Amino acid sequence: MMKQALLIFARNLVYGQVKTRLAATIGRQRALAVYELLLEHTVAVTERLPFDKVVFYSEKIDGGDIWNDRSYKKQVQAGNDLGERMRHAFATVFGKGYQKAAIIGTDCFELTTLIITEAFECLDKYDVVIGPAKDGGYYLLGMKKLYPGLFNDIQWSTDQVLKQTLAACEQLQISTHLLPALSDIDHEEDLKNIHI
């Protein structure tokens, strides 16, 4: 049986520390409510997936939260920037013998169970699978082994992330498949599809 892992990067649900770009325009209380909705959505689309699921918390493991212990393993992110944290998460699961792994965040309200399943299926044919976000980043990154080069020299949290990641794939001669482009929820205008 192939060992497959879905890694979920989640922020701890703390007032004033989630969706800070969004909070700047809609206020902290509403930003917290939006993030809660995004967490609920992420649980809804991942809970029944037949892969091992590991939630990597930004600060500490929260007991008794939305990520139930039956469906999700729990760890804390390690590293100074997003690239280091993601590289460490992939290294952790590949070090435990997993043959496929994909990482997602909790900012994409358009993400579906089907798209995540497609990502893992595409790893049968491709080295790397990327879900492009419409803001120039990505909402999913999947691979069959660790490619540390995909986490170096990337301008995280900018519109250059996808472009720089694809350039790194080309340089490393990694076969790459792109999933459908989806929107992340980062700014007030992104909320038009969410009723809250």
TrEMBL record:
Gene3D superfamilies: Spore Coat Polysaccharide Biosynthesis Protein SpsA, Chain A. GO terms for molecular function: transferase activity. InterPro entries: Nucleotide-diphossugar_trans, Trfase_1_rSAM/seldom-assoc. It comes from the Bacteria. Keywords: Transferase. This is Glycosyltransferase. It comes from Niastella populi.
